[in-house]
Amino acid sequence: MTFFRKASSKLREFRGADSGAATVEFVMIFPMILWLVFSTFELGWLTTRQMMLARGLNLTIRDLRLDNIVDPTHAKLKQLVCERSLVLRNCLTSVHIELVPLTLSSGIPRTESTCVDRTGDIIPVENFSAGTLEDIMFVRACVIVDLMLPGMGIAAQLTKDSTGGYAMVASSAFKREP
């Protein structure tokens, strides 16, 4: 019986002590704070890359609209967008640009943006037409980016492709002037 008395006495002492109370709160709150910190870094970096993609596309489209690009091709536009989107890694291999003329009857393309398949199985069809003068043109760039912390914070909730990359899309429209 002495074993049970000693054990119950130690249990009463432990129950009455408050020396580990802060540890319990820390263990409960720390994961939420960590989630918030990781989400902040991830979203900040994603926003920076999205903004730089949109900036690179807009600067390139401005040159195209003003007819400053001689003989615009898919490869040339891709190179210009990548040169102006400073923070995108492997930009030339991971960006896909669509340039299509719009008509009043067709409106904005209803399909989702075509992105590069990084597994190498499927090469996206180049939907690229420089258009003629007076055409209203719609341009869309899609790039697959790797997340900093794919399994933590908000990055775990984002829709990813089969390689774990996240698709970012920037679009613009312009009218070819004579």
Care to describe what's here?
This protein is of the alpha+beta class and 178 residues long. The chain has one domain. The chain contains 4 helices and 3 strands; from the N terminus they run H-H-H-H-E-E-E. Strands 1-2-3 form a 3-stranded antiparallel sheet. It is rod-shaped, with a radius of gyration of 27 Å. The termini are far apart. 18% of the residues are buried.
Which key features would you list for this structure?
178 residues, three-stranded antiparallel sheet, 3 strands
Task: Write a brief structural summary.
This protein is α+β, with helices and mostly antiparallel strands and 178 residues long. It has helices at residues 2-16, 21-65, 74-84, 91-94, and strands at 95-102, 136-146, 165-175. Helix content is 42%, strand content 17%.
Q: Quick one: biggest sheet?
A: 3 strands, antiparallel
- Number of E strands: 3
**Overall pLDDT:** 82
User: Helical residue percent?
Assistant: 40-55%
Helical stretch count?
A: 4
Note the beta-strand portion: 15-25%
Unreliable stretches (pLDDT < 50, length at least 5) are: none
Number of domains: 1
Question: Could you give the order of strands across the largest sheet?
Answer: 1-2-3
What overall geometry do the principal axes of the alpha carbons give?
rod-shaped
Secondary structure layout:
Elements: H1 2-16, H2 21-65, H3 74-84, H4 91-94, E1 95-102, E2 136-146, E3 165-175
Helix pairs in contact: 2-3
